[in-house]
Amino acid sequence: MIYSLCLLLILVGLYGVVASRQTVKIVISLVIMQHGVHLLLLLIGYRDGGSPPIVDPGQAVTTFAGLSVDPLPQALVLTSIVIGLGVLALMVALCVRLYERYGTFDVTEIRRLRG
Amino acid sequence: MFDVDTRVLIPLFVALPLAVALLIQLVARDRPVLSGWLTNVTMLGLVVMSCFTIGSSGLYHLGGWPTPVGIDLRLDSLATLLLLAISIVGLAVGLYSVDYMRRYSAGSHFYSLFLLMVTGMVGVVLAGDLFNLYVFLEVAVVASYSLVAFGCSHEELEASFKYIVLGSLSSALILIGVALVYGITGTLNMAHMSARIAETGMNAPLSLAFGLFICGFSFKAALVPFHAWLPDAHPSAPAPVSAMLSGVLIKAIGIYVLARLAFNVFGAGDSELSLLRWLGVLSMIVGGLLAAGQSDIKRLFAYSSISQVGFIILGLGLGTPLGLVGALYHLVNHAMFKSLLFLNAGAVEYATGTRNLYRLGGLNRALPVTGATSLVGSMSIAGIPPFNGFWSKLIIIIACVEAGFYSFAAAAVVISIVTLAYQLKVQRMAFFASLPASLRDLRREPRLMSLAMILLAAGCIALSFLVLSGLRDPWLIGAAQETLSAGPF
């Protein structure tokens, strides 16, 4: 169920990228899609009723591993969010520069390259 | 080859360009010439280091953590082949940039981004686990997005936006693939993953993950249904960047990873390989035909890249040892001659200010080095017998026939002829013919640019000797065998 919501989020983002005409909207759709992927990654490590992945002092590692959620996907998502932030900054900068050059955010008017 | 501990070298491959990229920003921010030389010294260091790694393999645990916990960097002969291609092309491009990038402001930023891109590519080639591969891939592509937009003109910004949107989409697909594979196998380490997959065999979720990887990395390698960004992004970038993008980036982060995943991780069967074959043939044909109709010299070369990448993927998709040898051979060959041709195109643009073939002509007299080296590049890519491109295409075609794909072999032959046709078009219209009146007094190409082009042309000629058995065995056959041997690579 919750996996299909992830898929829905990814597809909403994908639809936005394909269907919108404004550069800024395309950027926002890409971010939505990215976060859909992040949620999927988190869900893969999730366990119903699991404890946070922090080892208490004196707790055996095996019992800990039996109780907690998988911490690895959380680390991956953190990394991926940072990467996403870098790409987002670059995309927004490109949108601003494109607006300076072409005077529009409309991708159908930003088309000097063809062939 | 030499007695050097490769475990010392492996992390240096990633650390050296990364450190110099930061160093340039710290000490040489306003001194583009100094940063240019720092870059060249670094690239020379990488060339020497990759020469030291020939014939050796190794495993490095980052931070000393053992394999299931820590992050691995792995070196094998396939990685060595790619490292050599990256560092040699990178050195030539670095030398070329010293003169070429003078007309741009913020030169030191260019060198930092360039080194970051090299870091990313080297990291992808050495990464031993799938998520770090993804991280290094993003380092490389983010650097390349900004390098494509480096001049900030209309076309560059537009191309870079297209590239960044499609690039982010494909990265998202790849990340979903990583998530799925982690969910199924419970590991990110590629060697462990391949062992688990070998136990369970391919099931439906794994096939989905593999499909997502194929889509994602086909975007990065610009195979035909996913190629739309390349003919805009590669020609719009400054010439040294186009050479780097077309020469090695699409191979290191596209083809290399596809080969690694298909053979080493997923142990792809015939149905998966047939997908690669069809993608390859499609790119080969569509790229070749579109290239023939172009009048912009760099755009023509960009379409030609799509077509040549098709040859490589076709060779990989055959899945036979001979096909792989041909594919890997064509991969290093294409790295040499396509970066050479893009540097030639850059030299033409540097001297004349135009890339339109219809406004050029007779440049052989005005730009002798560019003319001569571009002839070597054109003949190599078109597959004229003594040059390297002939041997690699011949091996791929023979491998097609041997595997029983006669129609693919015929298509490869026809597209080789089309390649010859459009390369002759470039030669005739730009370098032979008579010099138009508007181009009477041209500057000669600067020395370092000539040196870079001569270096790559010499590389093309040197690679044609790789078919000799003494050289072939340790380089190509070794890499191909290591690729084919599934399991912990």
Which short descriptors sum up this protein?
heterodimer, A: 115 residues, mainly alpha, Helix Hairpins, 4 helices, 70% helix, elongated, B: 489 residues, two-stranded antiparallel sheet, 19 helices, 2 strands, globular
Question: What does this molecule look like?
Answer:
The complex is a heterodimer of chains A (115) and B (489). The model of chain A has no long low-confidence stretch (mean pLDDT 87). Chain A has a single domain (2-46, 59-109), classed as Helix Hairpins (Orthogonal Bundle), CATH 1.10.287.3510. Chain A starts with a helix and ends in a 13-residue tail after the last helix. Chain A is 70% helix and 0% strand. By secondary structure, chain A is mainly alpha-helical. Chain B is 76% helix and 2% strand. Chain B has a two-stranded antiparallel ribbon. The mean pLDDT of chain B is 88. Classes of the chains: A mainly alpha (115), B mainly alpha (489). Chain A binds chain B through residues 10, 13-14, 17, 23, 26, 30, 33-34, 37, 40-41, 44, 72-73, 76, 79-80, 83, 86-87, 90-91, 94-95, 97-98, 101-102, 110-113, 115, and chain B through 131, 135, 138, 142, 145-146, 149, 152-155, 157-162, 164-165, 168-169, 171-172, 175-176, 178-179, 182-183, 188, 231-232, 236, 294, 296, 299.
Q: Tell me the quaternary state.
A: heterodimer
The overall number of domains of chain A is: 1
The total beta strand count of chain B reads 2
Using a beta-carbon cutoff below 8 angstroms, give the protein chain pair with the largest interface and the number of residues from each chain: A-B, 34 and 36 residues
The overall strand count of chain A is 0
Radius of gyration of chain B: 21 Å
